[in-house]
Amino acid sequence: MLSKHKTDTTTQFMDANGLFKKETNNNTLTDAHIEQIMQVFGSKANVEHVAQSVPFEKVADDDYNLPVCSYVDAKDNREVVGIAKLNITDQIELAKAEEKISKQKARQLFDSGDIHKVAVGTFAGLAKFAT
């Protein structure tokens, strides 16, 4: 909320991506999810992977770039898979397996609607596709 009388110039960014009940084509916020969101919002606390309060100066330094993913790091839910588990024996097979996994991840991001949250041209954005 903006107010010329407000003395606190921090902006709170929230990513409540994990706070919903997944249903068929629509996701639903339960009362418990709404309560969690309101508690974080009300406390203005920094919560890892959920909320970050950012000073106005930092937002200005970032040219007022406001995507949440620029300020709140998404939780890394990727499964760690060793080369031995993939039964890969050479570099060419490894490169093909990495490309296949990256394409699968890109498809998941597209299907879930999260593709628009990927920061283009950044290492954080690239990490969304990395294995």
Tally of individual domains: 2
Structural class: mainly alpha
Globular, elongated, flat, extended or rod-shaped: what is the shape? globular
* Low-confidence spans: none
Using the CA coordinates, give the radius of gyration. Answer: 19 Å
User: How much strand?
Assistant: 5-15%
What's the helix count? 5
- Strand arrangement within the widest β-sheet reads 1-4
End-to-end Cα distance, whole Å, is 38 Å
Report the average pLDDT across residues.
Answer: 77
Q: Helix content range of the residues, please? A: 25-40%
Question: What is the N-to-C succession of helices and strands?
Answer: EEEHEHHHH
Number of strands: 4
Main sheet: strands, sense, barrel: 2 strands, antiparallel
Brief synopsis:
With 131 residues, the protein is mainly alpha-helical. Helix content is 38%, strand content 9%.
Feature tags:
5 helices; two-stranded antiparallel sheet; 9% strand; 2 domains; 38% helix; mainly alpha; 131 residues
Structure write-up:
- This protein starts with 10 loop residues before the first strand and ends with a helix.
- Helix content is 38%, strand content 9%.
- The longest helix has 22 residues.
- It has two domains: 75 residues, no CATH class; 55 residues, no CATH class.
- The chain has a two-stranded antiparallel sheet.
List the helices and strands and how they pair.
Layout: E1 11-14, E2 21-22, E3 27-28, H1 31-43, E4 51-54, H2 56-61, H3 83-86, H4 91-112, H5 123-127
